[in-house]
Amino acid sequence: MPKQVDHEQRRRLLTEAVFAVISTQGFEAVSLRDVAEQAGVSMGTVQHYFPTKQQMLSFALSHMRERVLARLQAALAALREPTRRDLIRAATAVMLPVDPAGREEACVNIAFFSAATVTPAYAEQLRDGYGRILTVSVANFREAARLGELRDGIDPDVEAPVLYFLTQGLVGPILVGLYSPDDALALIDAQLDRVFRPISP
């Protein structure tokens, strides 16, 4: 009986190979041949799923959302009776290159941002990703305000994007070693201290 192949799983495995090539060799190094070698498969296998490099990279960028979401869900599931601040802090940490997975994702994201300046399809995907994250971030801050967790005078519609873009701004400094992951997370905590009320003992 012929072996059943999970085609979606195979695409994801090839995408992980794309991420590995980008994070270790750079965006320009990516080719169907490089990805095949990284994944341990034939060129024909890669071309079966992705006839062109453009199709392969576009799928990789869309898969990034699933990958980050899976890590976020795992981080949130590990929390015990979290406050809204705990949830926001955990989500923020997932978006920073503070561990190997986050570092690889950050390298890939930066590579796509650079390519997006001349590739409208990438720019559209990235704008969509920004929009989704900001929508969730604003909803979380609004819920924190409803629960009375925010300090007086704090506008959740302002503070949500401020925190998100602070996080984005810390990615590069962490990658090049200007800030350590702990230093970056300390800045995030300082921002959250400014926005959230202290937790009563």
What's the short version?
The protein has helices at residues 7-25, 32-39, 43-49, 53-77, 84-94, 100-116, 120-146, 156-175, 181-195.
Describe it:
This protein is mostly helical and 201 residues long. It has one domain: Tetracycline Repressor, domain 2, CATH 1.10.357. It contains nine helices and no strands. The protein is elongated. It comes from Actinoplanes sandaracinus. Keywords: DNA-binding, Repressor, Transcription, Transcription regulation.
Write the layout of secondary structure elements.
Blueprint: H1 7-25, H2 32-39, H3 43-49, H4 53-77, H5 84-94, H6 100-116, H7 120-146, H8 156-175, H9 181-195
Helix pairs in contact: 1-2, 1-4, 1-6, 2-3, 4-5, 4-7, 5-7, 5-9, 6-7, 7-8, 8-9
